[in-house]
Amino acid sequence: MRAISVKNLSKTFKIYARPSDRLKEFFFRKPLHSNFAALQGISFEVLRGKTVGLIGQNGSGKSTLLKILGGLMQPTTGTVEINGCVSSLIELGTGFHPEFSGRANVYMNASLRGMPREEVDRRFPEILEFSGLEGFIDRPLKTYSTGMWVRLAFSAAISVDPEILLIDEALAVGDALFQHKCLQRLRQLQEQGRTIFFVSHDMAAVKTFCEEAMLLDQGQLAACGKPDEVCALYISLLAQRASQDRIVFRTVEGARARFDPSIYSQTMVGYGNFDVEISHVELLSARGETVQAVVSGDIGRIRIHLVAHRPVADPVVGVLIRDRMGNDIYGTNTFYENIKMGDWPAGRIMEVEYTLKFDLAQGDYFISVAAHGGRDHLGLCYHWIDVALVMKVLPPASHFAGHVRLPTKIAFREAPVAKIGRM
Amino acid sequence: MVMNLVLAEQDVFKAWIRQRFIQRYLIAQMVARELRARYVGSSIGLFWSVIHPLLSMAVFTYVFSYVLRVRFSEDTGVGSFALYLFCGMLPWNSFREIVERCATSITDNASLVKNLSFHSKTLQLSIGITSLVTQWIGLAVLLVVTIILRGSLPYMAPIVLPLSILLMLFGIGLGFLVCTLHVFFRDTAQFVNVGLMIWFYLTPVFYPAHVIPPKFQFLIYINPLAYAANIYRHIVLNNGFPDLFGLSVFTGLSAGTFLLGYWVYSKNFPAFIDEL
């Protein structure tokens, strides 16, 4: 069952250089505007109950698409079919008035969203509880902090129970605890089989939260597929913009066709101009055995096999370790470590090995690898692999708190005088 | 053909009423908020809307009855001119407020119209109703003062209520037109302000209609607000039933303007969003 079906959708805006041009055009019937194509020939379908992430650079048409899906804007051409009632979380706190109490503003906001009074009455306790603003709800909104304001706005907005929910960048609100609550609420909606369409710049959120992702680029649908693959493509697109270089994209199909998938422990996507190609990546124990896991605090090796397809000058090879949420934990490369590997002629086969002490907390980690020309892969990129390896770190013999163990020495002795500072 | 048009208009009107019925709670909230926002933080609140007309009546009485000694009706009671003037000011002020505020209603609430799929016509309607409420408060003050000054009860006064609603529809209809225009041409609101100022002096508010020279009398016949002022005066001051010609012209103009504004607004609404 399709929740959203979009066929060949385009949206063109008329741009006038001066306001008076519009008047002249109206009276003299002479076109004075230029057209800006915000969306061009977009077609896609979203199945009921799916969560889809929409990513893309600023101005790529994400918000326009969301507004058209929400029925706030009419497409210039093409058709949009929506099955089910839609609620859009495009801007938070619309219609909030600082002089009125939080309660009055929630009621107003809910009725602007088309909720009848009885339903607002019914949902109000839930909204209040979600916002965690029990003590403040009857105070005027102007006395709220920005964070409280946003929490109230989000709570009011998320209280709706739509079949299809459109969200624009609205998740990055409030403190960590509140963000956690928001994600929980969205997960709950997911479990209830709601369709969620989610615009974000936050790759980590898209990867963890969405089942599918779409990439919009300059008003066109550039990719559609698994979130990690589409996100990798997006990052590569940004790199391409930065370097203005010829870049080969490897979509999933491309990657599977070109590489033996068994080499990699995960489906992955690479990009780059492939002057140097990473052919294989492996994790080795200190004794040189191929492993999938290391014990926290042990020495391990990441070995990268490369092939130079064209002659390259002074290439740099790097690794990046990321946690399950996509946060960068540690990364380094031959440039940072001051290692010069010289010029490689075409056809050279290389092996670069990193020996690391894995002082990491227990958990799953992703390893990205890259070969590039400059100091990082955002410049001239030969080959970047987003998830080359999945590595498990096993619990350490002696416990520590946090993500990493820092080299620590502890000394103690009896002190002759008490030193008192400002604490 | 004519029948079809009338039917279509009826359908439009029915649809409009139905939508408004669904949205009645939203409108009620908007009006309540609007009235409260006006006096938020003030200690006597809505009471200001009683004080304002009372004080203006008092100052009109002083200026026109004692300073200028204006007298142009047969009635020579104290404050007669003040009552006459206030009777004309009441519909005019309400009308002016509606049109002026409607003109910028879409652009001022751009974030609402752009981001929420609610019936945006509730904005204009709540402006109209808010102004109607203040007009009725003014009307109540006017009646009390009339009774005190003249010692008689103008029992025809309730007829003013449906008329004030017709006037509101006229204002909203015009408001629909100017706010549509204002989205595309942002000079419209300025133009509206100037236009209303001229319109005010062309309307017999400060002067009676019969002092206008015959060659300009036509201005009275094409001016709905002149009908409104005359009808209000006739009901409140002369305690008479309004003449049917004036009443039907006023009704026709109001309903027609409203439907025209409604149609123009609805037709252009999809294009609004792109311009905000």
Topology:
The complex is a heterodimer of chains A (423) and B (276).
Chain A: E1 2-15, H1 19-28, E2 34-47, E3 51-55, H2 62-69, E4 77-82, E5 86-89, H3 102-112, H4 117-131, H5 146-158, E6 164-168, H6 176-191, E7 195-199, H7 203-209, E8 212-217, E9 220-225, H8 227-243, E10 248-249, H9 252-258, E11 270-272, E12 276-285, E13 293-295, E14 299-308, E15 316-323, E16 328-333, E17 349-357, E18 363-372, E19 381-394
Parallel strand pairs in A: 3-7, 3-8, 5-6, 6-7, 13-19
Antiparallel strand pairs in A: 1-2, 1-4, 8-9, 10-11, 11-19, 12-14, 14-17, 15-16, 15-18, 18-19
Chain B: H1 2-22, H2 24-38, H3 48-67, H4 80-103, H5 105-108, H6 110-115, H7 121-150, H8 160-184, H9 188-202, H10 218-221, H11 224-238, H12 244-275
Helix pairs in contact in B: 2-7, 3-4, 3-7, 4-7, 4-8, 4-9, 4-11, 7-8, 8-12, 11-12
Summarize the structure.
The complex is a heterodimer of chains A (423) and B (276). By secondary structure, chain A is an alpha/beta fold. Chain A contains nine helices and 19 strands.
CA(first)-CA(last) distance of chain B: 37 Å
Order of helices and strands of chain A: EHEEHEEHHHEHEHEEHEHEEEEEEEEE
* Rg of Cα set of chain A: 27 Å
- Give the biggest beta sheet of chain B: none
Helix content of chain B: over 70%
Q: What is the CATH fold-level name of the largest domain in chain A?
A: Rossmann fold
